[in-house]
Amino acid sequence: MIKSHSVAIQSRATVTGTEGEQTYTYTALKSIKAGVQANSLSPVELAAWGITDLVADSMIMFYDNDATIVRLMRAVVDGVTYEIRATNKWPTHSEAILTPVQGI
Going by C-beta distance under 8 Å and a sequence separation of 6 or more, which residues neighbour residue 104? Predict the structure, then answer.
């Protein structure tokens, strides 16, 4: 695994407004080195990850097991912000599927 990218991981916090509406804020949590490449999963593989929609410009990130990363955090790679949609831990490394954040 070639860890050629510096990735900023952001944690998500929920803020509840006066009328019960929820918004989210993101705070820089840590920076890790990771391998990031274009994602080319088939619909069957996406279903195995629990993702039902396919984003053409999604990415897959490979990183060390000692980094605690969970779904719905964000990853900033080369100035592009991605939402972490799914994670999977293997004996030698972990993987995450990243989809681009639209708008904010």
Answer: none
Tokens representing residue 93 in the block: 């490394």
- pLDDT under 50 in the chain at which residues? none
Structure tokens at 87: 């994670």
Residue 96: per-residue pLDDT = 94
Question: What are the percentages of helix, strand and coil residues in the chain, rounded to 5?
Answer: 5, 55, 40
Q: Token digits for 96?
A: 């995450």
Bridge pairing between strands 22-38 and 59-63: antiparallel
Residue 57's DSSP bridge partners are none
Q: What are the structural domains of the chain?
A: 5-14+22-100 (2.40.10.270)
